[in-house]
Amino acid sequence: MKMCLDCVPCFVRQAADAVRLSVSSEEEQDRLMHNVLQWIGDIDLSQTPPAAAQMLHRRLRALLAVEDPYRISKDRHNALASRLMPSIRRRIAAAVDPLTMAVRYAITGNIIDLGAKNNVGLGEVYAELQSAPMQPVFGDLEALRKAAGLARTILYLADNAGEIFFDRLLIEQFSGARVTLVVRGAPVINDATLPDARAAGMEDIADVMDNGSDAPGTLLSDCSPEFRRRFDEADMIIAKGQGNFESLSEGQRDVFFLFRAKCPVISLHTGFAAGTYVAANRFERQKTAGERNDS
Amino acid sequence: MKMCLDCVPCFVRQAADAVRLSVSSEEEQDRLMHNVLQWIGDIDLSQTPPAAAQMLHRRLRALLAVEDPYRISKDRHNALASRLMPSIRRRIAAAVDPLTMAVRYAITGNIIDLGAKNNVGLGEVYAELQSAPMQPVFGDLEALRKAAGLARTILYLADNAGEIFFDRLLIEQFSGARVTLVVRGAPVINDATLPDARAAGMEDIADVMDNGSDAPGTLLSDCSPEFRRRFDEADMIIAKGQGNFESLSEGQRDVFFLFRAKCPVISLHTGFAAGTYVAANRFERQKTAGERNDS
User: Fold this and answer.
1) ipTM, 2 dp
2) Considering the entire predicted model, what is its pTM?
């Protein structure tokens, strides 16, 4: 999915966030911001958003001389999600349809996304959790249920720290399959990496690996050969978040995408309003904009 | 009020909006956007936001060779507001305290601001109007009431098109004073200019003038001598919107500011969360953050 003009202010905001997270002097912040803005002025607008964001955040990390500007945010979101887990696990277990409920909460967790906005507050997360059980999920949940029931191997592409705890509760529903949980190969925005998978205890219930790439999405050509092999061979692939959707929606493989629609660019491509809970595979704009299944 | 890093993504979004409103070819949009981004990369971050936005929108209008990229949006917002006027006027007249109610609706109208976001939907305006009568207004409404009761001349600085219809309903409450309604001197974003004042029928109830400036705020040094004379001489000044607040809050004159807090930069400076209805004079951060009067 090609980026559009609306992606640019979002990149500028990400840059401002990263600069502020890493540098306290206002003068130095201004100097760095000018530098990044000049770079953004030359950005190639024909790329996918994750490809452009990968380059932007590499530059930011180099300029800031910080390996992981978002580490403190990620730790905070992990701690918050960790505290919420026991009650959400109980709610899923008590649901008439635990799989659907786990999908809803996994999508709810996708609001913890510092790529789409510059802060995620405790109040916002609690409010979302209250409404999660009632949220309509657009897409084909029955196809997901069937595919998960038949799959021997599931490749689950995580998105963000914090959110990865919610992913764990969904993966716990896939007891009949061998699940491989995949995180990014290096820090980028607040995307989950290996320390976040460990924080969520993913090793207890899944194989855990990284994809070898520092893009906030899944750019196959940039991923490790081992990841690409697993991507080709898995019976089923589940991909969380907008970044994975933006980078994989036009690929050859059938992927189940789970995400909150969070920005006008995604709305334009999918037809879904901001806030929509999306669970869809073989994503085609015409289809999803036309015939939506409310589950 | 000095701009901060968070203003930059907002300027980039305004640029993307203006480009898209004026040019349909994607290639041409990309070319123009690169040009503007390079310019924004050199922006002086020590200015007030309206001063920087004035320069940005001058450049945009020159690049796009369009005198008023937002004219269609402004006409649409005027038409929407015009349809809403009769029922709001009735609600104000039926209120126990019509002045306070008119202030609430005038602040509600301040959501019609394409500087702060790229679209204002019909649904959003209707939802705001439903909640308007119950909104707490932070600031000193009694001081405003007293000043308006004593004033022989009131200078009312309008903000946006559409919103200016709501301003009219407030000005109708000031029957004891001679009111001068001031709009921008030339098009900038969706700020009201003389055609918008005429659309709202302002000439029937007030003297109408423009301030001679194309800044989306009130930069006194950039305004006409006639405006500056009226600014010095008026018994009372009411200024609508964030742009007027950002440019006048640190000045010498006592100004009553009416606006919706709409962005993190304003929240940082005033202590008011986004969405807050603000009606305050002699605005000082310490005071307002400390002792707020809920009217």
Assistant:
1) 0.80
2) 0.86
